[in-house]
Write a structure and sequence with these properties.
about 550 residues; alpha+beta; 8-stranded mixed beta sheet; 16 helices; 7-stranded mixed beta sheet
Length: about 550
């Protein structure tokens, strides 16, 4: 197995950002790594459950559990990295109060088992042996916090979802407690500012507000983890010998891990008032965590694990210094590969582990810009306002008008993430007139995602001292040609979309397949299929004027709570 640090020279953009931020002298080359892409498959929609099946003669497969914010799916890839089988189901979002969001951890596990069982039925019906699945990888919604009782294996509270904003006061208390009285007090150590976003802050809230969690902590019965930990624990046996682990990419989102040593930091834990005994063991993104216990896939190794955005980095093959990708899901997340060095941003970005593909392999780091609400804004139009019946309808509505007619939508439902980090922001729609129609609001929703991405890209360019010339994209929203053209127009650079867009699930499968030897190295996949490239079509003056209006709208969203 080889590592993610290859021999190809970094791009000019990469060289400048690393030179500027680290003081090193990285050689400059105009050679860019070609983007590998794969063929996407036809999907058959079955209500809220989606089954995908295609014929394949290949009898070697790798599975991938993709546990997301609004749905769970199990995908099986063949040796060529093509999707062979898939089952997907949505699950309930729990909103106990304004700005709060929870998931039932038991329901999460139920959906994982459902998806694996249904795919097992499909494979068996096609005549394949389930032992043809050589390993399973996991990718998951990050930061979402699960707590359970070690003695019973049962959750002590609903999972607090990554976009939940209830911890605003907890953040203020932590800032006040810090010697510097700033949100960046621990950022040099853990790569993250104090924010409602991260798992450590959510755990502190649970310890302060939920008696069952307090008692379990005091008694030494408390187990904490992000969703990957919960899945691996249960899939490997739960209370009957299940492993309590978390891979480095997920651990790097807690605030508890030292980003440089990749170990739990005792000084940080003391600051938060958290016992190390409740934390999972930190492991790499590609190793054998244990075998699946029970069910039709019993005995198959769990052998890869990455947080969803880092899995997309692997799936997009951003293995080289200076490559960047943006994933559009519930939120939007741009990651920029900074190589073997953890670089601390000065412009509101986060430092995170991109991947560590093996126990004895060096980690690769990234700078990240996180947007809380992207696809979730479209879901809000559908579920809360009833403006559309299916998410795909937004393209028809938005495409029926040429502009938003001066309407701007800032979807700060639980605050604004990068580069603002403002938990006092709330959603607003501005510029409404009697002329405004739902079509304008639909287009403003697509533009909102693209404007937020531009803000993150601007921060990345500021850290670099030069401008990124190309953005690789993936995720559900990239299926919209209109949305991607708007993105290219507002960024002023080319946007590149792979033909195979399930890069998150593929990334986890790649990690698992590398571990068990299905694939020998990171360069296994090649394709002659060219990606879709969207180029800007509007004038710079138009772009600048619209961006200035967006900035005014963002100002209107601040200081609400």
């Amino acid at each position: 197995m080889t590592t993610g640090t290859h021999t190809q020279e970094p791009s000019t953009f990469a060289s400048k950002i690393i030179n500027k931020l680290t003081g090193t002298d990285v050689p400059v080359s105009s050679n860019e790594t070609p983007q590998a892409t794969l063929i996407s498959l036809h999907k058959v929609d079955m209500s809220n459950n989606t089954v995908t099946r295609t014929q394949t003669k290949n009898g070697v497969f790798v599975g991938s559990i993709d546990q997301g914010t609004s749905s769970t799916r199990f995908m099986v890839f063949n040796e060529n990295g093509d999707i062979a089988f898939q089952y997907q189901t949505e699950f309930e979002q729990i909103y106990p109060a304004a700005g709060w969001c929870e998931h039932d951890p038991v329901v999460i596990m139920d959906t994982v088992h459902l998806c694996m069982n249904e795919v097992a039925k499909l494979m068996t019906a096609e005549g394949f042996a389930l032992t043809d699945i050589k390993a399973v990888g996991i990718t998951n919604q990050r930061e979402t916090t699960v707590v359970w009782d070690k003695t019973t294996g049962k959750p002590l509270h609903n999972a607090i979802v990554w976009l939940d904003g209830r911890t605003k006061d907890t953040v203020a208390q932590l800032v006040e407690k810090s010697p510097t009285k700033t949100s960046t007090y621990l950022q040099e150590k853990c790569g993250l500012p104090f924010s409602t976003y991260f798992s450590g802050v959510k755990l502190r809230w649970l310890l302060d507000n939920v008696r069952a969690v307090q008692d379990a902590h005091n008694d030494g019965r408390l187990a904490f983890g992000t969703v990957d930990s919960w899945l691996i624990y249960n899939l490997t046996g739960g209370v009957n010998g299940g492993r309590h682990v978390s891979d480095v990419t997920n651990a790097s989102r807690t605030m508890f891990m030292n980003i440089h040593t990749l170990k739990w930091d005792t000084e940080i834990l003391d600051f938060f008032g958290v016992k190390q005994s409740l934390l999972p063991e930190i492991v790499s993104s590609a190793e054998h965590y244990g075998n699946i216990v029970g069910g039709p896939l019993a005995g198959i190794p769990l052998a890869g694990c990455l947080g969803d955005q880092q899995a997309a980095v692997v799936g997009q093959r951003c293995f080289n210094l200076g490559e960047a990708k943006n994933t559009y899901g519930t939120g939007a997340f741009m990651l920029f590969n900074t190589g073997p060095k953890a670089v601390i941003s000065t412009h509101g970005l986060l430092t995170t582990v991109a991947f560590k593909l093996g126990k004895d392999v060096a980690p690769v780091y990234a700078l990240e810009g996180s947007v809380a609400i992207a696809g979730a804004a479209i879901k809000w139009l559908r579920d809360n306002l009833g403006m559309i019946k299916e998410a795909s309808e937004i393209n028809t509505l938005a495409g029926s008008v040429d502009t938003t007619a001066g309407v701007y939508f800032v979807p700060a439902f639980s605050g604004l993430f990068a580069p603002h980090w403002r938990d006092d922001a709330r959603g607003c729609i501005v510029g409404l007139t009697q002329y405004t129609k739902k079509e304008h609001i639909a287009r403003a929703t697509l533009e909102a995602v693209c404007f937020q991405t531009k803000e993150v890209l601007d921060a990345m360019n500021a850290d670099a001292g030069t401008d990124l010339a190309l953005l690789k994209v993936d995720g559900g929203m990239t299926a919209s040609d209109l949305g991607m053209q708007i993105q290219a127009d507002l960024l002023g650079i080319a946007v590149e979309r792979p033909q195979m867009r399930e890069t998150t699930a593929l990334g986890a499968a790649l990690a698992a397949g590398l571990t068990v030897g299905v694939w020998k190295d990171l360069d296994h996949f090649t394709t002659a299929i060219a990606p879709d490239v969207f180029k800007p079509k509007i004038e710079a003056k138009d772009r600048d004027e619209r961006y200035a209006s967006w900035k005014k709208a963002v100002e209107r969203s601040l200081n609400w709570v």
